Amino acid sequence: MDVVMGLLGCGTVGAGVVELTRRRAERIEEMTGTRPVIKKILVRDTTKPRGVRLHGEVLTDRPEDVLDDPTVGLVIETIGGIEPARSFILRAIAAGKHVVTANKDLMALHGEEILDAAESAHVEVFYEAAVGGAIPLIRPLKGCLTSNEITDLKGIINGTTNYIVSKMTETGADFEAVLAEAQALGYAESDPTSDVDGLDAARKLTILASIAFHTRVNLADVSVRGIRSITAADVAYAKELNCVIKLLAVGRERDGVLQLEVRPSLVPLAHPLAAVSDAFNALFVRGDAAGDLMFFGRGAGCMPTASAVVGDVIEVLQNMRMGISETVGATRLPRKVVATNQGPEGRYYIRLTAKDRPGVFAQVAGVFGDAGVSMESVLQRRLADQDAQIVVVTHSVRQAELTAAADRLALLEAVAAVDNVLPVEEMDADGPVMDDIMDDLAAPTASLS
Ligand SMILES: NC(=O)c1ccc[n+]([C@@H]2O[C@H](COP(=O)([O-])OP(=O)(O)OC[C@H]3O[C@@H](n4cnc5c(N)ncnc54)[C@H](OP(=O)(O)O)[C@@H]3O)[C@@H](O)[C@H]2O)c1
Questions:
Q1: Residue 262 near residue 225, CB atoms below 8 Å
Q2: Ligand 1 mean position to 78 CA, how many Å?
Q3: pLDDT by residue (tens digit) across 38-60?
Q4: Fewer CB within 10 A of the end CB, N or C, for the chain?
């Protein structure tokens, strides 16, 4: 039996979906008892070369050829953005068609509306490719790990910023120069705002956190800071401190309260996230039963993203065969409190520019002492113009104390600027993953018999 599908969009991801569906057609038929046929593909320009084998008149620029065709049972959306993708998906759902989408922006901002519509229409909406490209994240969180209370999510979920900070670390170049190179190579958009200001990662975090913490979180719940403020100096000092700078998406639940943030952090080189470079993504998940897990892989690209999309397609086809639906109850979840005083308690890196003269460091140290912030390590470098750069890494401190110290430092006559303040990831409280796993392996296992 054939299952007729319609594809919306045939760009990077859509072309991969066409190719992978063709390559795996036999296996899909074996697994689902149905042969997937892509009947129509909606694009803007039907004359543009697509780089994949397409039969006859498959391309169309008329949405109704996909959305109003009663033989189309499954619509795959790879257009991207909010409109017209949202309207197309809602129209497909209303017509009783299942939907697979790779659209993170849409699912982050309108996921509830779409999943509610799907439940009412008794159809499936799957969106594994929306976060982490090829890496299975949504299905493990929704399925294999549902017996857990998830307490922590921490990851690198934006490839563009990870490429930029990786290149800054590798070459010592400044943010603007690396961004320009990334744009020239096509790794960053001509308008890079969504990536470099952390919005893309924040949208993905709302999707992951909603599933992991069994609630609905909105973009406004996430405290967001991107990487524009990271300089070559920060990257160099991080290196001296045996760290790398990474843009992290962090979600945690403590006593029923969520804390959600996207922010650049110093990550110790021994931390597994430090080794996640370039366009790779990684996510740590901590569950009360499963313990610590790490997911790692290609976060974007034609075939990696198609891998997730076609995986969803196969699952829809299997569910269609069995007559079951997984979208039921997807949005009927308790709302949880989200902390407004964002910013974790922990160690911080503070870089400041001050006058290079006797007594200045004592003043700086005095401000930290008065604010109850103790210093773990200090670096001091002479700059031109009688100035010096002072870098302090604090012991664990509450954010309120740190902010008080930074505000008072900025008021000192001898301090020209507090240039940057960044959290430093812990190895024990937040990132013991590998050590814990190794300890578990070494520990004697209780016999079950
Ligand atoms: N690229 C990745 O690595 C990646 C990874 C994960 C998730 N995603 C998500 O996957 C989706 C697609 O991304 P992409 O990189 O494949 O985008 P893309 O290369 O820009 O392709 C978009 C496709 O949609 C078509 N399209 C756009 N607006 C349209 C409209 N109004 N009517 C009809 N067709 C329209 C375009 O047609 P024309 O070709 O004729 O212009 C093009 O074929 C996005 O939601 C993105 O966030 C992408």
A1: yes
A2: 5
A3: 999 999 999 999 999 898 899 99
A4: C
